[in-house]
Amino acid sequence: MSAQLIDGKAIAAEVRARVAAGVARLAARSGVVPGLTVILVGEDPASEVYVRTKVTQTAAAGMRGAVLRLPAETTEAELLATVARLNADPAVHGILVQFPLPAHLDVARVVEAIAPEKDVDGFNPLNVGRTAAGLREAIVPCTPLGVLHLIKTVRVDLGGLSALVVGASNVVGRPMARLLLGEHCTVSIAHVRTTDLPERARAADVLVVATGVPGLVRGDWLKPGATVIDVGITRAATPEGKVRLVGDVAFDEAVQVAGALTPVPGGVGPMTVAYLLSNTLDAAERAVSRR
Ligand code: GUN
Q1: H/E element, 69
Q2: Atom 4 (ligand 1): residue with closest C-alpha?
Q3: Residue nearest to atom 11 of ligand 1 (CA)
């Protein structure tokens, strides 16, 4: 048996097309063009690639995308002042501070400084709380939103299914578990200190893996027919000296057992950016309705 591959690249293109249509409708109705500003502090090479993709796709959807580059030695006061300026700028509907930040900057303080209605990452404590409570005004983090969309392309009704989220980060694992709970799954969260991970994984109808440990989840950890979403993306060297992107799931084994599976790359990655655009459009629509 071979799992259905969930084509995140194609599904993300559909999301982006929906966003582009929404952007055009909003502009026609209100004259407002949604604007996203990404703040990049320092010169992390992986962040450079992500930020370029985010801004290119923002523009392709008809929105205004900008990158504010700040030097690695930017002080916290300077960064907070930049965030405050963007909070007050009516042309900016979404603010994203790219992680990782240089070590001298306090991530929590920076995230708390972003106006909740412009926090398109969904990391501000107000959005974390609203997401936890399942409130409509929540801005929900992009990766879990994208993952839920992928799961729903293969399983329409998740009610009563057993879901396991491996990884308890604030960016993916915790909000993911809250979204699955909202879909009436029976949800568990596992992490690196979980002792019986294979047994727990084998009980899951829906398995979301976000640990950053390449190949952690083996084929014999899976319930036959399970829906498996691999959020991991690690750069690994091939024997030929090339760089290859690998996920947290041993793909060649999992594809024999799972019912549906995301590839790496081309699974979750494109969905994260698509939902960043979607969150930015939503933020702009809410700003217009507040006018
Ligand atoms: N760096 C890697 N992923 C993310 C993300 O989702 N948001 C931000 N702000 N930075 C990241």
Answers
A1: strand 64-70
A2: 99
A3: 99
